[in-house]
Amino acid sequence: GLKAGIFGALSRLKGKRKLDEAEIKELAKSIRRALLEADFNVRQSKEITARLEERMVEEEPLPGVTLQTHAMNIIYTELVRLLGPPKEIRPHNQTILMVGLYGQGKTTTTAKLAEWWRRRHGVKVAVIEADVQRPGAYAQLQQLLADSPVEVYGEPENNNAEEIVRNGLAQVGNADVVIVDTAGRDRLDDELQAELERIHKVANATERFLVIDAQVGQAAGPVAAGFHELVGISGVIVTKLDGTARGGGALSAVATTGAPIVFIGEGEKVADLEKFESDRFISRLLG
Amino acid sequence: IIKDGPVFDELLEELELVMLEADMGSRALAAVLVALRSELIGSRLRRGADLTRVIEASLKRALRSLLSAGYWDFNATIDQMVDAGDTPVIVMMVGVNGTGKTTTTAKIAHRLKEEGKTVILAAADTFRAGAIDQLETHAERIGVRCVSSERGGDSAAIARDAVESAKARGADVVIIDTAGRMTNKINLMNELQKVHRVAQPHLVLFVGDALAGNDAVEQAVEFQRTLKFDGAVLCKLDTDAKGGAALSIAHATGRPIVLAGVGQGYDDLQQFDPDWLLQMMFE
Ligand SMILES: Nc1nc2c(ncn2[C@@H]2O[C@H](COP(=O)(O)OP(=O)(O)OP(=O)(O)O)[C@@H](O)[C@H]2O)c(=O)[nH]1
Ligand SMILES: Nc1nc2c(ncn2[C@@H]2O[C@H](COP(=O)(O)OP(=O)(O)OP(=O)(O)O)[C@@H](O)[C@H]2O)c(=O)[nH]1
Ligand SMILES: [Mg+2]
Ligand SMILES: [Mg+2]
What we know:
heterodimer; A: alpha/beta; 48% helix; B: alpha/beta; eight-stranded mixed beta sheet; 51% helix; 14% strand; elongated; binds guanosine-5'-triphosphate; binds magnesium ion
């Protein structure tokens, strides 16, 4: 994993008290390689190691701290800085728009979020299924929330997503939180881009969450940029962190959108949602 | 003579970056570059030849042979089996969550039906919300029979029922769609092995997501270890993904990518073409 890669790069610092410029450059290069292998994108890897190089030159390790530990701490704090401060969502007067690529976990996460706020805050939550592309989308959301008092709005026979959102808001818009689930899409599909623009206008969302699968690699950056341009991403949700994937690619989404990770998905059940915590995410990322 | 040194290193590093940015896994890439080095260092550089071009051409050759290793033609293979009377031909779709198994099942069924074959689908994802509805809707639209049960039923039983039904009806092909699952969930991988034992498929297809980074290797290796798949389908190649995962999967498992998913429509399934992928990666 990433930790092994970083430790491997740092192992050459064993017993050293100070590095010369060439050694710092070598260290940065091997750390960059380790980051790329963990699905970080090129630009991010360069930024992190540039900061590492600067700080290795400027900072002295505290007394009793090895150069290895010092370097590891720098990398750790740079990752925390990259992730940014946490964001609290108040579950009142919110319309949440869920967007993302195909199969990332948007529909499942819509159900999870609905139950999260309903259970923890006792607020009235409604969800709108605005995916008109995927067969069985409404049935999926309905079944996920079958045992929940959350109101599920959908029009399985209607193929106009914008109309469903408009009708849905008219019907359930009085809820404290309304979550709108949309179809998976990629910015290379013009029709789906146009559809999202129309949905976005009608929804008047107070939060626009990008749902991204922990297994996504280098495409995460460009994909996130596309969604950010279209709707202005205000939060990122990383799913499937209960698998083997670590979510390195998702960090590009954070960097591109400037939006914090707000929740993480750790399973297929409605209860498998956790609030994002940066040190947990980073230690899992490091492996 | 091509010499080892900073010039060669720098050129190789530039290509390495292109490949990493195209999602080729680091381990596969390292292996390819080591072989590239030993091939080129000490070899003759023709007069006027551009070293960058030579290295790139060599790299593409190595990647093409990696993708072509063990390659088999999906359609031709199904045809041969049907013609040989080895029916129903049983195909099983496996992979982690959300990669495109159900959609690919529908695409394959549609393609085979267009070629005049009778296809029966097994809705063996009895776990996920909306899974049976999804496949049943596809089956209705394509015009093929779908064997399913109540949600929560036994996955292996559905597979067996579909095969029995196919035998009784003299159908040509059965495609078993299974639930997505994470490879680190032992009980789910065991369940899949049970479905495999009961269904005894002729062909197992691992369905991977072209958007996946280094995790594509983890997934493929684990499915190869527990189930042994015959070929892989790489879906969502019509997205921002560059498709490097194809190389990592082929390298890690020695199994070929045989089909490419290039969209959500029933016709968006192509026979995998290594040159087409390489062109996409090097663009
Ligand atoms: N293991 C695991 N599976 C998940 C998680 N979140 C979603 N899934 C699964 O991932 C698959 C895809 O989830 P969906 O909710 O259908 O994804 P989607 O983004 O709505 O898909 P489209 O609407 O087709 O774009 C399903 O099998 C889900 O059960 C998670 O956190 N962990
Ligand atoms: N653009 C594009 N989308 C695809 C492709 N293949 C599948 N999809 C979409 O990806 C999403 C997930 O596809 P599914 O077929 O449900 O994936 P799955 O592997 O069966 O998912 P689970 O059963 O939940 O594990 C759907 O929105 C599909 O339409 C493809 O080749 N291109
Ligand atoms: Mg969905
Ligand atoms: Mg499926």
